[in-house]
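pls design
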């Protein structure tokens, strides 16, 4: 045995190292009989297996003794040179403690050798009371508190601690979730992170990206949450490519290691099978990690669930049969939809359109701000309102929202309700049915439409397969039979994914009929609504959706855009595209826009949707939201009206009850890039809204006019009948 491994303290047959404040008789006497101590009547086994963890009391102080099991001769011989597991644990724990990095205070390590055989080996530390582990906290959050903010706070705490450990020069090498202890100090706060099971640790002068990556690769997190965690670990810096490469390498290697464990250690596998630990844990209720498909996490800041898996991992879990279902539905519907689409495009702008009740807004009443939000809403005349009821928020939110429905409906305002599922209700039709019935009982007779489900083609909203949504619709059929006056709309697919929409409509139960096709239709990542995605601008998308509604046997010839907005720059994690964590990685296609562009695009979107005759109603999502609303509630005591709110307020005041009469095609042809929308007000006067899709455009007004105002209603001085147009619409009063 090398001199460097000879321990400097002996107690009977044991040799090792003992902390100075434990080198007193009362402790030395007990440590000298440690084999008997851990088998005593007051000893409590914390964990068993190859290694045994036992809590003992010595002179009123609680200690944890980790007893390492016997090894093969070859391993003993190696450890006699390189240091045993107990010695490595002591060295790593002592260094962490000196560097003020969390770990239970190292009391001692003791060993008994017989020649080259390590007969007994112990590591002793102080017991930490009332601790939980990173793994247990994750499991609790997944099952009981699936709130994104709590996940992010937990991640920040743990990632910061791991960074500190690595900077101290310790590579853990077994950094599983269960080996990270911490205290929960509040509803969304954790502290005093402690690293345990340090027997595989290695001490380094400075850790390389590869060594850091090896540690992080042992954390059990779904891929998208892992991405966020790695960004946090690098504290706002961009993780190097080498780190990602090695982290992926070691994660795959560890996955293979785990997958082959039964082959390499069949006796242990048989033992685990006999105890049935996992099954027992599951029967005890939610004490294991949920399956990846069931990891559903809500982000209140951005008003949506977050993706817990990367797109690659999500794709791997999709039903393969669903792709065929989508392909068959698309091919079978294509001829009829194409025919209707062409006919509708030819009719755009050709018929007068009443603007009354065409523009709605979604509100999100909550907390003590309900009356404030309703007061703001009253500034927008009596426009229709859409209110969401969320299954995951429970009866407190349902009752609050139902009260608002009653209040608004009593003021002769058109109110609709969106019924929003989570993963639990998408999996369990009985839960979904109870939810829908509860909401209907509270609001029936007051609601124009009930939207069934939400963004069902985005698995983060809880629906992983069309068949799951169809089971939700089966429940709706029974409810509609019980409530024949109820009008349902749907299926609330999001974005320009019409093949998915066709597959859903093809499979809708025959007994169910939608009063309108509702869809969440964004144009983000393409900027202005006139910009194209292939051959389709917003107008063509509207016409195609309307054509699908006409061709669907389960739907009336009505098309409602039940959600649209633009995400705002500078909103950070409150923006739906930056949630749940604002990564330092540069964004190649950032859909966020300025508040001014948001306002301009909103009005132009509404004009294109409603005046074309393709869309019966547009609901703007939403009235108040920091990252995308018409009002900014960053300061909870003083909401700020954004430009979009003022522009919409003016439009509704001037033209909310007007009639769109057409577009001057000749005038637009003579002025490329200029869009002209003509309206007749209730008083018989005519108003034209004009803007350009170019950066700027000089426009000479070719008709007599009385005045010109900007989008806010402020008069514009016009010289020689010429205007400099921008993307912001102006009003020309004849």
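designed seq:
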């Amino acid at each position: 045995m090398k001199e460097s491994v000879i321990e400097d303290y002996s107690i009977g047959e044991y040799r090792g190292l003992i902390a100075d404040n434990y080198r007193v008789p009362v402790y030395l006497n007990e440590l000298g009989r440690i084999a008997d101590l851990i088998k005593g009547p007051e000893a409590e086994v914390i964990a068993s297996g190859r290694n045994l963890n036992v809590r003992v009391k010595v002179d009123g102080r609680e200690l944890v003794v980790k007893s390492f099991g016997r090894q093969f001769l070859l391993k003993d011989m190696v450890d006699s040179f390189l240091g045993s597991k107990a010695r490595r644990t002591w060295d790593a724990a002592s260094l962490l403690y000196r560097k003020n990095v969390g770990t239970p205070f190292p009391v001692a390590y003791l060993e008994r050798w017989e020649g080259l055989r390590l007969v007994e080996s112990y590591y002793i530390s102080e017991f930490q009371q009332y601790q939980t582990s990173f793994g247990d906290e994750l499991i609790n959050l997944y099952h009981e508190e699936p709130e994104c903010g709590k996940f992010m706070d937990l991640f920040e705490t743990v990632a910061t601690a791991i960074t500190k450990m690595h900077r101290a020069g310790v590579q853990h090498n077994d950094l599983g979730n269960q080996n990270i202890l911490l205290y929960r100090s509040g509803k969304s706060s954790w502290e005093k992170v402690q690293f345990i099971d340090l027997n595989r640790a290695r001490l380094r002068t400075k850790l390389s990206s590869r060594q850091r990556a090896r540690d992080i690769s042992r954390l059990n997190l779904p891929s998208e949450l892992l991405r966020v965690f790695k960004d946090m670990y690098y504290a706002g810096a961009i993780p190097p490519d080498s780190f990602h490469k090695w982290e992926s390498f070691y994660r795959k290697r560890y996955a293979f290691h785990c997958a082959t464990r039964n082959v390499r250690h069949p006796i242990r596998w048989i033992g685990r099978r006999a105890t049935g630990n996992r099954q027992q844990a599951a029967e005890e209720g939610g004490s294991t990690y949920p399956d990846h498909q069931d990891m559903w996490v809500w982000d209140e800041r951005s008003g949506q669930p977050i993706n817990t898996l990367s797109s690659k991992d999500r794709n791997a879990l999709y039903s393969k049969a669903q792709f065929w279902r989508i392909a068959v539905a698309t091919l079978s519907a294509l001829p009829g939809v194409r025919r209707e689409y062409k006919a509708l495009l030819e009719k755009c702008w050709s018929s007068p359109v009443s603007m009354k009740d065409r523009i709605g807004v979604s509100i999100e009443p909550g907390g003590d701000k309900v009356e404030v939000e309703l007061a703001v809403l009253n500034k927008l005349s009596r426009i229709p309102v859409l209110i969401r009821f969320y299954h995951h928020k429970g009866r407190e939110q349902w009752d609050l929202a139902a009260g608002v429905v009653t209040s608004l409906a009593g003021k002769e305002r058109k109110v609709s309700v969106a019924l929003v599922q989570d993963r639990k209700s998408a999996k369990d039709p009985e839960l979904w049915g109870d939810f829908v019935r509860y909401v209907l009982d509270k609001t029936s007779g007051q609601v124009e439409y009930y939207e069934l489900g939400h963004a069902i083609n985005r698995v983060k909203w809880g629906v992983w397969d069309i068949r799951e949504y169809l089971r939700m619709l089966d429940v709706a059929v029974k409810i509609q039979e019980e409530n024949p006056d109820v009008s349902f709309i749907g299926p609330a697919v999001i974005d320009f994914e019409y093949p998915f929409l066709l597959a859903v409509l093809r499979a809708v139960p025959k007994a169910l009929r939608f009063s309108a096709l509702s869809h969440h239709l964004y144009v983000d990542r393409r900027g202005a609504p006139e910009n194209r995605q292939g051959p389709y601008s917003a107008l063509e998308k509207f016409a195609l959706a309307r054509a699908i509604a006409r061709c669907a046997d389960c739907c009336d010839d009505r098309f409602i855009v039940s959600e649209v907005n633009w995400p705002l720059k500078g909103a950070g994690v409150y923006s739906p595209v930056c949630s749940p964590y604002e990564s330092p990685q540069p964004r190649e296609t950032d859909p966020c826009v300025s508040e001014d562009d948001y306002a301009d695009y909103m009005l132009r979107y509404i004009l294109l949707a409603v005046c074309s005759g393709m869309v019966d109603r547009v609901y703007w999502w939403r009235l108040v939201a920091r990252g995308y609303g018409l009002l900014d509630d960053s300061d909870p005591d003083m909401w700020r009206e954004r430009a979009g709110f003022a522009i919409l307020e003016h439009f509704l005041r001037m033209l909310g009850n007007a009639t769109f009469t057409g577009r001057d095609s000749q005038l637009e042809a003579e002025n490329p890039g200029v869009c002209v929308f003509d309206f007749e007000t209730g008083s018989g006067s005519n108003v034209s809204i004009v803007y350009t899709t170019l950066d700027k455009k000089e426009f000479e007004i070719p008709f007599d006019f009385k005045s010109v105002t900007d989008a806010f209603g402020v008069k514009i001085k016009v010289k020689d009948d010429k205007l400099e147009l921008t993307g912001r619409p102006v009003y020309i009063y004849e």
